[in-house]
Design goal:
Elements lengths: L1 H7 L6 H15 L4 H9 L7 E3 L2 E3 L3 E3 L10 H6 L5 E6 L12 E4 L4 E4 L8 H14 L5 E5 L10 H12 L5 E5 L14 H15 L4 E5 L5 H13 L4 E4 L13 H7 L3 E4 L3 H14 L5 E5 L5 H9 L4 E4 L1 H6 L3 H13 L2
Parallel strand pairs: 3-13, 4-7, 7-8, 8-9, 9-10, 10-12, 12-13
Antiparallel strand pairs: 1-2, 5-6, 6-11
Organism: Microbacterium hominis
InterPro entries: Aldolase_TIM, DHO_dehydrogenase, Dihydroorotate_DH_1_2, Dihydroorotate_DH_2, Dihydroorotate_DH_cat, Dihydroorotate_DH_CS
EC number: 1.3.5.2
């Protein structure tokens, strides 16, 4: 049913408008009395329970940051079978993001290009919504992804991240520092170890007991990936998210002229699969066994998720696959994973 709806309706609609149309539907799935009914149809098999970051996740598969920017869909996404929801990216200062259009589908490649620019209602609003979600759906594992406010200069980024941390860390099960989005000027420069160290130290101290992770780009060189991973271990972080979107445009089926017309932005989806898997393996080789790695990028099927788990990921996230697979995506993934574990 969903593939037909996608081909006949969503594929002909502006991607951002389509996303906003489905938000109230997903939110409705998380409201009583629909939530327990939907969850009964989608709940992960108990064999998938996964300990990580001081919590037990119902499934290792969750929603990556970017899908629920303002923490308004977490209860509905939990009802649909996801093991965790990472909200955001949120910033201290509410911001509209980049001018539209800023989200594009590459349907033959099962990919997206986005240059959203951290459009969100601000960390304070996200914190209030996270608190409500924690009260109403206590089993939902909620992560919060924080980024730099656009109006803040890079040299003042640390203070900006610390402010967001103080607002949301107490309401989140874990916190992710996003220094790897390609859509905020100067942000990726913060991944350099010499600038990343003081930023992560300050956020770590502000986060208190909330597990802290850092999210990196797939476009780093291999030695840079390993250096950031070692830094995260040295600073006592709980883990690392590998990876964000890529600025590369290699190996696409869509013709180069069409892709160029879409403009700048981060590429996500199937074309990212190979590189994100490479980065995962580099990180796992550089960190201790008890260091948590959340794998993301190019994940669409249960085979993709299992491949990341076999390569050393503790948890796996997806986003773009939701666009192409629809609301039963998590159930499909979970059933495929459970079948493998029961063989």
């Amino acid at each position: 049913m969903y593939p037909f709806i996608f081909r006949t309706v969503f594929a002909h609609m502006d991607p951002e408008r389509a996303h906003h149309l489905v938000i109230p539907v997903i939110r409705a799935f998380g409201v009583w009395p629909l939530r327990p009914i939907v969850r009964a149809l989608t709940a992960p098999d108990p064999v998938l329970r996964t300990p990580a970051l001081g919590r037990v996740f119902d499934s290792p598969f969750g929603v990556a940051a970017g899908f629920d920017k303002n923490a308004v869909m977490s209860e509905g996404l939990y009802a649909l079978g996801f093991g965790h929801v990472e909200v955001g990216t949120v910033t201290t200062v509410p911001q509209a993001g980049n001018p539209r259009p800023r989200l594009f589908r590459l349907i033959p490649d099962r990919a997206l290009i986005n240059r959203m620019g951290f459009n969100n209602a601000g960390a304070a609003a996200a914190a209030a919504r996270l608190e409500r979600s924690r009260r109403r759906a206590r089993r939902t594992v909620l992560g919060a992804n924080i980024g730099k406010s656009r109006i803040v200069d890079v040299e003042h980024a640390t203070a900006d991240y610390v402010t967001s941390t103080k607002l949301v860390a107490g309401e989140a099960d874990y916190l992710v520092v996003n220094v790897s989005s390609p859509n905020t000027p100067g942000l990726r420069g913060l991944q350099a170890v010499e600038t990343l160290r003081p930023l992560l130290e300050a956020v770590r101290d502000a986060a208190g007991s909330t597990p802290l992770l850092v999210k990196i780009a797939p476009d780093l060189e291999d030695d840079e990936v390993a250096a950031v991973a070692r830094l995260a271990v040295d600073l006592g972080l709980a883990g690392l998210v590998a990876t964000n979107t890529t600025i590369a445009r290699d190996g696409l089926t869509v013709d180069a002229r069409t892709v160029a017309a879409m403009g700048a932005g981060g590429l996500s989806g199937a074309p990212l699969r190979r590189r994100s898997l490479e980065v995962l393996r580099i990180v796992r080789a550089a960190v201790p066994d008890d260091f948590c790695i959340i794998a993301a990028g190019g994940v669409e099927t249960a085979d993709d998720v299992q491949e990341r788990l076999d390569a050393g990921a503790n948890l796996v996230q997806g986003y773009t696959g939701f666009i192409y697979r629809g609301p039963l995506w998590a159930r499909q993934i979970n059933r495929g994973l459970a079948a493998r574990r029961r063989r």
